[in-house]
Amino acid sequence: MTHAARPVPAPNIGHVPSGSGAAVQAALEGLDRVILGKPRPVRLALACLLARGHLLIEDQPGVGKTTLAHALARTLGLDFRRVQFTADLLPADLLGVSIWDARAGGFQYHPGPVFSQLLLADEINRATPRTQSALLEAMEERTVSEGGVTRPLPEPFFVIATQNPGAFVGTSPLPEAQLDRFLLTVTLGYPDPRAERLLLETGGRAAMARDLPAVLGPAALLAAQREVDDVYAAPALLDYLQLLARATREHPALASGLSPRALLALLAASRAWAFLAGRPMVLPEDVQAVFPALCAHRLPTRDPGARVGEVLARVLAETPIP
After folding, report:
1. Rounded Cα–Cα distance for residues 101 and 57 (Å)
2. Distant-in-sequence, close-in-space partners of 287: CB < 8 Å, separation ≥ 6
3. Is residue 67 classed as helix, strand or coil in its secondary structure?
4. Of 85, 156, 246, 282, which has the fewest Cβ atoms less than 10 A away?
């Protein structure tokens, strides 16, 4: 028997036994102090990195996109590089280049900023499609191929990209293949009046983001990611994921549905959301929490004027929970 989809209250099953769980919660609290009044986007951003995914932050300038990226890098204790994407940015500016060294009698490779643990691709859709596509191998394979040599990127490796709305002058839409490399898309939006007043009284949060203490580190973050992998997904939960995928593939308002790779990404993001809630198993409410952020940039609507968020809400409401 099935019933209509709705948020399911978490059972009293205790917390995930985790050596890194307390540090992750401390990181979340620090992020909330910097990005005021946006607990859900902040939680989604942290869940994205715990699930080994890349993050796309889409919004207009001035709402805190770059500040969130800085804050994530600082609180996670990761080596951080920022690249401002512009129309004249070349792939070699990201990936690096081999330069002839007469003294050594050969080409010497000079790594680009992609060789960092967290790369901020700021205003990524201001670059040309060729430069945008240069990140594809790095994001998917976590390697860079240049001059016939494949070089591994640091571990962990994340890309956080910010994107201005497509209607802005000087923007180029991201290729669909690259959009699919981003696990989640978050939008910050305007702060609520209380948070905005606090910003006016205390100043911006950019300096606070730079001063955040590192509560994790690469080793602790990798350990937390392994714990996320161990969060249990019951067979009935997997049935629910498949029902959602089928619903997106058959929905008349959507031009395409979730691919098998996107379905695996949905499971990973749901595990990370459950981990942040302190649960050792995934519940339908975890899937529902990450579903819009995972699907919004992957599933185009047939009608360009349709709001994909409203379509996804209908998919969740109409899909039964086994």
Report:
1. 40
2. 237, 240, 241, 244, 266, 270
3. helix
4. 246
List pLDDT tens digits, range 42-58: 999 999 999 999 999 98
End-to-end CA distance of the chain: 7
Backbone angles phi, psi at 143, to 5 degrees: -140, 165
Residue that terminates a domain, selected from 195, 223, 251: 223
Dihedral sign from CA coordinates of 216, 219, 225, 230: negative
Split at pLDDT 50, 70, 90, the class of 128 is confident
- b/e for 184-212, b at 16 or more Cβ within 10 A? bbbbbeebeeeeeeeeeeeeebeebbeeb
* Structure tokens given for 193: 């009046």
Quote the pTM value.
Answer: 0.86
Amino acid, single-letter form, for residue 66: T
- Which of residues 180, 200, 223 is at a domain's end? 223
Residues spanned by the domain of 131: 15-223
Cβ–Cβ under 8 Å, residues 220 and 228 = no
